[in-house]
Design a protein that fits this description.
Layout (H helix, E strand, L loop, with lengths): L12 H10 L6 H36 L5 H10 L1
């Protein structure tokens, strides 16, 4: 498989200076960007999975039981 290129972006010189100061010894800007993009993808995949599981649980719970009305929950919390 051929390698692909992530498009370059324009940033302000001050931001580029910050990024370059954050680089580890012997770390290239390209490897830093690749690592950041990979981490963001992992984060978004985890968030999407969480939302899917939460939605499925909500649907399951709504179908299985009537649940507890919000007013009842609030009243119980206020009573405590």
């Amino acid at each position: 498989m051929k390698n692909a290129i992530i498009p370059s972006i324009c940033v302000e010189p001050a931001f580029l200076d910050e990024v370059e100061r954050a680089l580890e010894p012997n770390e290239s800007l390209a490897s830093f960007v690749e690592t950041a993009v990979r981490r963001e993808i992992q984060l978004r995949q985890a968030q999407a999975g969480l939302l899917q599981r939460g939605s499925a649980a909500t649907r399951h719970n709504s179908a299985a039981t009537a649940g507890i009305p919000a007013e009842v929950v609030i009243a119980r919390l206020e009573a405590k």
